[in-house]
Amino acid sequence: MNLVVNARDAMPSGGSLNIEISEAHLDAEYCKQNPDTHPGSYVCIAVTDTGSGMSREVLSRLFEPFFTTKESGKGTGQKKITQLQLAPTAAWISDSSMSKLA
Fold first, then answer.
1. 3-state class (DSSP) for residue 4
2. Taking the C-alpha atoms of 89, 96, 63 and 34 in order, what is their torsion angle to the nearest 10 degrees?
3. Exposed/middle/buried for 6, CB within 10 Å: 0-12, 13-18, 19+?
4. CATH numbers and ranges of domains, the chain
5. Cα separation of 6 and 68, whole Å?
6. Alpha-carbon distance 51 to 64, whole Å?
7. Distance CA 97, CA 99 (A)
8. Measured between alpha carbons, how far is 90 from 78 in angstroms, rounded to an integer?
9. Per residue in 24-71, pLDDT tens?
10. What is the Cα Rg of the chain in Å?
């Protein structure tokens, strides 16, 4: 929910928010190249929006539990998201539109 609220706030003039769920299978070869992963089937949740994007500094701090870019008293940071751990695996951030990064 917090992720959706943050996406909304990044689109003050409106925009598009997409949430996609799919299955991802990590094979042994992939896991050799990514040592924090384990082979198996996982749920992949992809969230994209047409918001303003994040600066490199904000992106680097994305998973800090109490980090927020909102003014004091307005944000809970990503703590609600990082507290929800569905599987002991790594998280990936991918931005196919690198032009959004400042």
1. helix
2. 30
3. buried
4. 2-87 (3.30.565.10)
5. 10
6. 21
7. 5
8. 16
9. 899 999 999 988 888 999 888 888 888 888 888 888 887 777 777 777
10. 15
Can you tell me the distance from the alpha carbon of 49 to that of 44, in angstroms, rounded to the nearest whole number? Answer: 17
Closest-CA residue to 87 (of 31, 32, 36): 36
Count Cα atoms within 13 angstroms, Cβ side, for 47.
Answer: 14
Name 42's bridge partners.
24
What is the C-alpha separation between 27 and 36, in angstroms, rounded?
A: 13
H or E stretch including 31? helix 28-33
Q: Residue 68 in contact with residue 20, Cβ under 8 Å?
A: no
- Predicted TM-score (pTM) of the model is 0.59
Asked whether 61 and 35 are in contact (CB, 8 A), the reply is: no
